[in-house]
Amino acid sequence: MDLENLNIKKREPLALEITNQIIEYLQSGKVNPGDRLPSERQLAQNLGVGRSVVRDALKSLSLLGILEIRQGDGTYFQSISSELLPRTIEWGLLLGKKRVLDLAECRHYIEIAIVKLAAERRDQQTIEELSALLETMKNARFDTETFAEADLQFHMKIAKASQNTALHDILSSMRSLLDFWIKRVIAAAGDSQYSYDRHLAIFEAIKEGDAQKATKAMEKHMESALERLKTILKENQKDQA
């Protein structure tokens, strides 16, 4: 047999296939926000898979805030963000904790490379735009949505200031991950002051054109944000155990 002529169709991991099928069910209009889903056993029977696969899919969707798992009461549909969902699937965010942390680690190194270039290449317009976003963040200390949006734009402005289109495009493709991450971390903290202080340090280093200082400030920000994300994921697993 000539192995080179074999046409092998690549399949998605079963967990992701089942997750996509559950999402299609949620988007079908048969389920409204607040409705309880069929039991884990019933879903497994309908989908023709084991309960463990369904359980993993439900946990992943719960992590994204699409479902709410209530111990002893069932699983409830919350909502689906039309902007968040397609890219979380594309990036494999639905595959669980390991994948989320891998992507977070990827972001860590990308952001550090970007901020170094931004500090070296920034112009007055960049400084003014970052300053305006910082002011928005300062005034939205207890407004998670507004703060998170300004936070996201802050990082994208830095990416643009790096004048490296490849790095900018990579970070841009991770926007959904960043949006998910930022909102969860801020909501868990209950107060965005610490995050604001980290961004202020990054801004000041960029404004001064100090690449080394900017790199250290971003690294500190990424490390603290990653630790908070790990805490959130750990607590989420405990709630669903």
Automatic annotation (TrEMBL):
GO function term, MF aspect, one: DNA-binding transcription factor activity
UniProt cross-references to Gene3D superfamilies, sorted A to Z: GntR ligand-binding domain-like (1.20.120.530), Winged helix-like DNA-binding domain superfamily/Winged helix DNA-binding domain (1.10.10.10)
Keywords, in A-Z order: DNA-binding, Pyruvate, Transcription, Transcription regulation
Q: What range(s) does the HTH gntR-type domain occupy?
A: 12-80
Pfam families given in the database record: FCD (PF07729), GntR (PF00392)
Instruction: List, alphabetically, the SMART domains matched.
Output: FCD, HTH_GNTR
The name on file for this protein is: GntR family transcriptional regulator, transcriptional repressor for pyruvate dehydrogenase complex
